[in-house]
Write a structure and sequence with these properties.
74% helix; 0% strand
Length: 427
Amino acid sequence: MFIFRNENLSVLEIKKYSQKIFFALVITACFSIMLPTAFLSIAFGSMLLFWLIAGDYKKKLFLIIKYPALLTPAILGSLYLIGLFFSTAPFLLSLKFFLKYLKLLLIPIIASSIQTEKIRVFAVNAFISAVLITLAASYFKYLHIIPMNLHIHDRFLETAGGGYYLFKGSIAHGILMSFAMYMMIIRAYFNSKFWWKLTWAILAFFTFCDVMFLGYGRTGQVIAIGLLILSIFQLYNYKILFRLIISFTALILLANLLSLNLQLPPRINQTIKAIQDGDRVEKVNKLEPRYMMYINTMKLIKKSPIFGYGTGSLSTEYSKLTKDDDIDIKFVPNPHNQYLLTQFELGFFGFLLLITMFIKQWQLSNNLIVQNDYYNYYAKGLIFTMAIGCLFNSLIIDATEGKFYCILMGVFLSACVAKQSKKNSKL
């Protein structure tokens, strides 16, 4: 009997320490979002392992089922598992894509596990800290304080048309920094101390400039402007928009006086020039292949709009469709649009579930007021970031952007889950 009790105590201790390690890994993962993808992948795998060891499945499963915002990503991941078995692609290719979607489980896993404000604060601050390091490195490169060729991620200087990045390329850098800018705006608005308010406002300004002028990620630039407008409507009202237009105009004039590079990204300039020259089809398609990807993907969707073609099947079907066409790109694993990709792979029900996931998370974020108003806005800003970004990229399958969304959304939504749990415990 004595041995039995010791064994039970040992199991409880293992679960307790596993839970602590899990929380540490969540914080590490938030910091690793700005680091090379390998760090984030290791943190992701370790989180799943220690979440399983920590146990307490009944309570966590109850919370996941209770909140549609947590349940929908789990169901969407399950649909991709089903799509693995009716996919028209080779099984190994389908499995590879399914593993990319497995990160969706991070949302319910993290949200159902974090119950304390302390862990959330550490996690959010870890992400902000990594952003500030990246921001400083970006400006240091621009000012030639540190060398451009650090052998970190400088290959994107050639492949993405220039820019001042650290560990991420133009697309990921722009998206992550745009959302960070939004978080800084929210912190500046709600902070009661003047100097902190001013500090966050200045950092938000420099982060916006970094996205717009030091990098060439078009998706990030669109998201940055969108988040800026969103924050104005959330925190103020439409009347302030007039002041924003004046301020933004003044910023552009100032940048021109300082001889900063305000040119549009090279591919946009080339595409506009091709249209102006009259070559509206051939040149535009070669300069911006995404247009052709969208058109061909929609052609395939029309053939199977309800059930789709299965997980990871786009490259197989796309090659069949374009085998006789005179185009440069015939192997397309994703159309650089998450909505089209989900509709193609899982059909109408998958597309509907993706939209529902965003809507339910937006609705749940209305309850995210725990000790401060940050999480409410953070969650909405993250959903907005993904909703816009998915128009131009398949963000959920992307290693950095997908984990960025799933990890931070899990952290933000955990605030509501913890709040509701405390209410229920008092009843």
